[in-house]
Amino acid sequence: MTAIPSTKLRALALLAIALLAACGKEPQQALGTLEFDRITLPAPVSEKIVRIDVREGQQVAAGAPLMQLELTRTRSQLDAAKAQAQQAREALSELETGPRSEDIAQARASLSAAQAQAADAQAYYARLQPLGRQKLVAASDVDRARAAAGNAQAQVRAAQAALLALERGTRTEQIAQGESALAAAEAQAATQAVTLEKLDLVAPRAGRVDSVPYKLGDQAPVGAPLVVMLVGDAPYARVYVPEPIRANVKVGQAARVFVDGRDGALNGRVRMIRSEASFTPYYALIGKDAARLSYLAEIQLDKSAAELPAGLPLRVEFVERDAQ
User: Is residue 235 a contact partner of residue 314, using CB atoms and an 8 Å limit?
Assistant: First the structure.
């Protein structure tokens, strides 16, 4: 039998010790639960639920009807907003068209009448002036005639200004104000139209209905969750990484996920890990107290876990980067 050299024996012994040390090293692990991405559909207005099209646990496609709220009040508000928009539109059209020819003709006639009255008042005042100097009429009569002539001239100037304003048409500032009023009314109508559309709830993405908190006939407050959906091709593991292993966990790192009640491990990769601790008992942690810190992390799983329900407890072992 051939003897093994002592140098080879020492090498084999060192290799065995290294393998035993590697086997005895506990893997880095964290605890958490199985989760799906959640979508919450809130109540856009406080209206009564008149129809529910799904049940909890049902799988739905994107765009599938989920629920409908009462439409009467919101539809009436939309009709009122549309009427206001139409009124603003007609007012702007009137401003852009300018004054009618009949209005201009009426202003010219008013100017002619004012000019005739001014001429008559001026003639009457001219006749009274010499009589007043001869003391044949009272001075107050002359003063009244002078005032009447001046008033008549002012009426002429006012009628001329009114005619000029009509002939020049609408000011650009008035048209701009009309355009702004129309834009505001149309925006309000569009807002009401969107609100009316939201009263018929549809699935924004394909997924599973997780919760329908309210029942038929309920009237939920504004913002209350009407339907909660679980979406995504596969769930993810939400775990809390202890502080002692936080430095060795990186985004993109491979992980093995062990779910309670399921044999074998699921493969996943770290998609997110928080930089701030979720639980910080003290402001300054040193020594053993630092081990109390935990960092929230998410591990994305493959499609083999798609049928697992949310909320299952699990354990995650992080694969060493050298092993990857």
Answer: no
Contacts with 257 (C-beta within 8 Å, 6 or more apart), sequence order: 237, 265, 266, 267, 268, 299, 301, 305, 314, 315, 316
Diameter of the chain by CA atoms?
168
Give the pLDDT of the chain (324 residues) as one tens digit per residue. Answer: 444 555 454 444 444 444 444 444 556 678 999 999 999 999 999 999 999 999 998 999 999 999 999 999 999 999 999 999 999 999 998 888 888 888 888 888 988 898 889 888 888 888 888 888 888 888 888 888 889 988 989 998 998 888 888 777 778 888 899 999 999 999 999 999 999 999 999 999 999 999 999 999 999 999 999 999 999 888 999 999 988 888 889 999 999 999 988 888 999 999 999 988 876 544 445 556 666 788 899 999 988 888 888 889 999 999 875 554
DSSP 281: S
In angstroms, rounded to a whole number, what is the distance separating the alpha carbons of residues 48 and 45? 9
CA angle (284 as vertex; 283, 285 as ends), nearest 5: 115
d(CA 263, CA 245): 26
A 10 A CB-CB count for 102 gives: 8
CATH entry, 28-68+211-318, from 2.40.30.170, 3.40.190.10, 1.10.150.20, 3.40.720.10: 2.40.30.170
CA gap 190, 188 in Å, rounded: 5
Q: From CA 255, how far away is CA 251, in angstroms rounded?
A: 11
Where are the domains positioned within the chain? 28-68+211-318, 81-190
Q: How much is the pTM?
A: 0.62
Helices 101-133, 139-168: inter-axial angle, 10-degree rounding: 160
Scanning the structure block, which residue is given the tokens 């406080």? Answer: 46
The conformational region for residue 98 under phi > 0 = left, psi -120 to 50 = alpha, else beta, is: left
